[in-house]
Amino acid sequence: LFAFHFVFRMTTPGVFGCDIGGVIKNLHDEEPIPGARSGLRSIQRSHKLVFISKCGLSFRPKILSWLKEHGLDDVRLIFCEPYDEKAGICCKEHVTHMIDDKMQVLEVFNDTVVKIWFCNNPKNIEGAKRYQPDLFKKFRLMGSWDEIVAEFCPEATAAAGAT
Questions:
Q1: Using 50, 70 and 90 to split pLDDT, how confident is the model at 157?
Q2: Is the pLDDT assigned to residue 52 strictly greater than 60?
Q3: CA distance 35 to 160
Q4: How far does Cα 120 stand from its chain's mean position?
Q5: Are the CB atoms for 22 and 101 separated by under 8 Å?
Q6: In 14-48, which positions are buried (b, 16+ CB within 10 angstroms) versus exposed (e)?
Q7: b/e per residue, 66-103, with b = 16+ CB within 10 A?
Q8: In what order do the strands lie in the sheet with 139-142?
Q9: Cα 56 vs. chain centroid, distance in angstroms?
Q10: Can you tell me the distance from the alpha carbon of 132 to that of 7, in angstroms, rounded to the nearest whole number?
């Protein structure tokens, strides 16, 4: 049953929720995270996609402008103010996979959501392994968009290998 459930969840189209800051947009220089745009397009070929971002009212126009500038303004976008609203939004939107760079955000999601912790900072990863090792049983650690695409969009990886 576990093997069926695992394969079913991996290959059945779902709804991916995706944070913006720290996941597709670098927080330090506002540049896109490498591979984010193509990774998101790969997800969209076989899954629904929705951006779910904590963002104050005054900063929202800047996010909308950034998404448009980088050709991502066609993705549905839902803003929230406190982080803990994300889990409720995901439930309402039937999100099956959530990509976020904050472990504390992912912690509150129920177990039916595949929680993807987007992190490539060795210091943060080692700290989490040392002080919160049980969380790694609940999260999928992904350090790049290539990893996400390889794991959740195998058809995109196969197509890239065929060219």
A1: low
A2: yes
A3: 14
A4: 14
A5: yes
A6: bbbbbbbbebbbeeeeeebbebbeebbbbbeebbb
A7: bbeeeebeebebebeeeeebbbebbeeeebbbbbbbbb
A8: 76-80, 48-54, 15-18, 97-100, 114-118, 139-142
A9: 20
A10: 27
